[in-house]
């Protein structure tokens, strides 16, 4: 396979999955990304892949294969041309099948997009999202032990706060795993605030402190 590091060059599962993308979906280019490509995988880690084919609808092939999750996005060529900013999730990936160099170009475009600041939201939208955080927090405060809607809003707010932390600071949001790793090394107080608020049974005060921190940008 093209450009595979030695650790993956003779990996039977990788060869099998690439073959399936070629035979089942007509892909001519396959990019492996995520922990398997970054060298941080365990035996249980997902096989995250992007398959590119000449044409057809974008689709997804996600299933368990021999007890390990296989998650592949299949897209037509037109979706990836000059579209690196839409594929930041493949950053650091490996073009394991790339006869035309399309995978390598996509990875270069994604790296370039990541090196540039993200496109900012309009001020009105930023203000609306800040107000939404306060509204959700107020609804959570009013909820009692049996208020299922308040519990739902608590989960909703906690889920969105991680991405909002990065949005409000003009940084790319790269998903939970990388975001928490970045916070641990670059903003330890924020990492601690998220840890406290996300802990099972965390008090409302921990969520209030996290909202205050996220909105402090």
Task: Summarize the entry for a quick read.
The chain is an alpha+beta fold and 217 residues long. The protein has helices spanning 6-9, 12-25, 35-38, 102-115, 123-142, 148-168, 176-186, 188-198, 204-214, and strands spanning 27-33, 47-53, 59-65, 68-76, 94-97. The longest helix has 21 residues, at 148-168.
What does the model show?
The chain folds into two domains: 110 residues, Beta Polymerase, domain 2 (2-Layer Sandwich); 92 residues, no CATH class. 51% of the residues lie in helices and 16% in strands. Strands 3-4-2-1-5 form a five-stranded mixed sheet, with helices on both faces. By secondary structure, the chain is α+β, with helices and mostly antiparallel strands. The chain is elongated and about 55 Å long. Helix 5 runs antiparallel to helix 9, helix 6 packs parallel to helix 9 and helix 8 packs antiparallel against helix 9.
Distance between the termini: 45 Å
Domain module tally: 2
CATH architecture of the largest domain: 2-Layer Sandwich
Biggest β-sheet, characterized? 5 strands, mixed
Helix amount: 40-55%
Tally of alpha and pi helices: 9
CATH-defined topology of the largest domain:
Beta Polymerase, domain 2
Task: Bin the strand percentage.
Answer: 15-25%
What is the overall silhouette?
elongated
What is the CATH level 1 assignment of the largest domain? Alpha Beta
CATH superfamily of the largest domain: Beta Polymerase, domain 2
The order of strands across the largest sheet is 3-4-2-1-5
Order of helices and strands: HHEHEEEEHHHHHH
Radius of gyration: 20 Å
Strand runs, count: 5
Return the structural class.
alpha+beta
């Amino acid at each position: 396979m093209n450009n595979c590091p030695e650790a993956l060059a003779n990996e039977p599962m990788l060869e099998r999955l690439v073959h399936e993308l070629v035979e089942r979906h007509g892909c001519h280019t396959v990019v492996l990304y995520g922990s398997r490509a970054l060298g941080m995988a365990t035996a249980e880690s997902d096989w995250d892949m992007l398959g590119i084919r000449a044409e057809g609808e974008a689709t997804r092939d996600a299933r368990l294969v021999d007890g390990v999750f296989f998650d592949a996005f299949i897209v037509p060529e037109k979706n990836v041309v000059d579209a690196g900013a839409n594929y930041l999730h493949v950053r650091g990936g490996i073009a394991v099948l790339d006869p035309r160099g399309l995978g390598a170009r996509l990875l270069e475009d994604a790296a370039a997009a990541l090196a540039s600041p993200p496109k900012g939201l309009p001020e009105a939208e930023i203000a609306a999202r800040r107000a939404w955080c306060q509204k959700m927090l107020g609804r959570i405060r009013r909820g009692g032990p049996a208020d299922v809607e308040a519990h739902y809003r608590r989960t909703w707010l906690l889920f969105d706060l991680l991405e909002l932390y990065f949005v409000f600071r003009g940084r790319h949001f790269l998903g939970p795993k990388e975001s928490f790793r970045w916070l641990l090394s670059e903003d330890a107080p924020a990492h601690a605030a998220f840890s406290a608020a996300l802990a099972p049974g965390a008090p409302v005060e921990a969520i209030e402190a996290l909202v205050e921190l996220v909105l402090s940008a």
